[in-house]
Design brief:
Blueprint: H1 5-8, E1 19-22, E2 25-34, E3 39-45, H2 51-68, E4 72-76
Parallel strand pairs: 3-4
Antiparallel strand pairs: 1-2, 2-3
């Protein structure tokens, strides 16, 4: 959605933040912080997500943690 362009490309310099895609649609951005004992994934959706959508994202986050061989901490930020 063009109204979220500045949220995905904040510097308008061609650099893009990691995006959260649900159902083939960009619905937010995310950041990770790798700690010694876990990886924290902070998701910021552009609009409220359903419980099912959040559960699907959490499932993929767990797979990512498995790939990194670290437990995952999933955090949801307020919708901007």
């Amino acid at each position: 959605d063009p109204r979220h362009a500045l949220l995905t490309h904040p510097g308008t310099n061609g650099m893009m933040l990691p995006v959260l895609v649900v159902g083939g649609r960009v619905v937010g951005v995310w950041k990770r912080a790798i700690k010694k004992k876990a990886v924290a994934l902070n998701f910021t959706p552009f609009e409220p997500l359903t419980v099912a959508q959040k559960e699907a994202v959490a499932g993929v986050a767990e797979r990512y943690g498995h790939f990194l061989q670290l437990p995952v901490i999933v955090r949801w930020q307020d919708v901007p």
